[in-house]
Known about the structure:
- This protein has one domain.
- 83% of the residues lie in helices and 0% in strands.
- It is built from nine helices and no strands.
- It has helices spanning 2-25, 29-63, 65-84, 104-128, 130-157, 162-173, 176-189, 194-220, 227-247.
- α5 (130-157) packs antiparallel against α6.
- The protein is globular.
Amino acid sequence: MPVVWVLTFCFLSSVGAISAAALFLLARKELRQKVLPYLICFATGTLLASALLELLPHAIEEAGVEPILTIMLMGLVLFFLLERWMIWRHCHVMGHCDVHVATGPLILLGDALHNFVDGIVLAAAFLSSIPIGMATGLAVIAHEVPQEVGDFAILLDRGFSRKQAFWWNLLSGSATFPGAVLGLVALDWLEAATPYVLSLSAAGFLYIGLADLIPSLHERLRPAIGFPHFLVIILGIATIFFLHRQHG
């Protein structure tokens, strides 16, 4: 049943990602600095491949090229505006956050909104098909872990204790569940809306990957991304491609 899959991936992308990030923060600083770029590389590959190989083709098949690309273009502009107002901002590089005013409450608010939308996206994807849902869920989880690591770093830097940072982050992450419930109910009644939600999801994935993750990699891995990092990006793409070929 799609409901079981949706709730499972909601749990993995919220509680699971936050728990993984919390364990990651217990590691030595040197180890964190070495591993985080690889997490970001894998997230970049899965996000871009999921948007371009799974979400967009399915949406275009259902609703046509021009409407879907129009919605995606509008989505990219919307995400840019939201980022400028610090609602959709994600800090993927630990210890760095290039927002204008990076306060703890705003990070939590942005994270809660993002997770709420992720819940709707997961519901839409699994109502379309189980393979698309799994590919989408994997992409969401892959980018949630480094995002949560960055959120923890910001909250600790803003004076939160480790315990406070964990519980507040867990609360904001739980917004995935009401988003999923809303998505399951609304999209079950309004099946025609599914390709447009998937198009917005693809826009979000592309925006996060191209406007956030890749620039953070260039910043962190100066002067250039090394061959092992490139291979991990390819691994992320190959993972989604494999799911697409198996179930396409």
